[in-house]
Design goal:
It is built from no helices and 21 strands. It is mainly β. Strand 15 and strand 16 form a beta hairpin. It is globular. 14% of the residues are buried.
Amino acid sequence: MRNLLVTAFVVSISSVALAGPGRGEGRVRVRVPAATYRVRVAPPVVREEVRIAAPSGRHIWVPGYWGWNRHRYYWVPGRWALPPRGYRVWIGPRWVNEGGFFVFYPGYWSVAEGPAVPVYDEEEIYVDSEPPPVRVEVQPVAPSPSHIWIAGRWGWSGGRYVWVPGRWEPARAGFHWDVGRWDRDDRRWRWRPGRWVRD
């Protein structure tokens, strides 16, 4: 059996104060977990999951991922979850290849990406590195015929790209969704936020 070299880290938490996403919600703190494990063997390919219908419009899909139990990888299935009050999006856990080790960073709830209301007022962002290729997503069943699918995208949070999953949004009469995008701007990449535009 292959020998595995594993290093466990004590999870440390850094908190960043950010404005709350909605009116009257005040300010919340984003707790970004530090790396927890370093493993020599790469995790298996992420499993494709079938999403059941969301229990409500407030639920957010938390995709499944490969965890580590100190001896081997195990699959943690995806689920629908209600965000804690004041938070907007789930930043999924990830395994990152760092110098030949696969380092695990736990997932967390964030207010840094995506709005709590249909009108997007995100600021433009400039980044030096090119965003990764867009992920292929499996769309869950629409909550109603009047919802539109807003595809997932790469956001920028904590000095790195993070995947913001796609979601269903209620359509707005007289408006269409202008998709957000990363554009090359001289030597940097510029994020142009998605927004509702009047027809």
